[in-house]
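Protein folding task:
====================
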Amino acid sequence: MAAYTRPKHESRVREYCQEREIETFLPTYRSWRHWSDRRKLLDLPLFPSYLFMRVSEEQRRRAVQAPGFLWFIHQQGRPVPVNEAELAAVRQLLVSGLQYDPLPGAQLGDEIEIVRGPLQGQIGRLVRKQQNAIALLVTAINGGVRVTLPDTSWVRVVRHQIRPVGLAVTAGFSY
């Protein structure tokens, strides 16, 4: 499940849940922040205000009591499950060594497959042809992450214009 938190409370909710043995996943990225008197490298949430949890009904009742917790993402009164394959792709990205940063919304196009590199085997979407980047999408929260690919030969077209799978890919090639 995806939990929605107050802005800048993702870590606080995660710590509360971990203390109560609730499984959480908070993907982060590193970014330099500049102030008038200093610079600092911070770990920031990849999907601001979102945290992912695997919870039982009892744990769900405890999780909603976390300071900064607002609600679980739901549709028609029922919690929306997060696709495990999408979260697996994000986890794989975090350990891949590739550069990545948040991508707040991606256009969907042709379905592609990553055929080389640390994300090999992942299915995605072509969203632009100008850059060597892929976008990992978590459809339950409509979030995305842009990853730079070193070479366009890492992708191949699988199908044209079908339903989203989990990744959106941006690559500098033409057919």
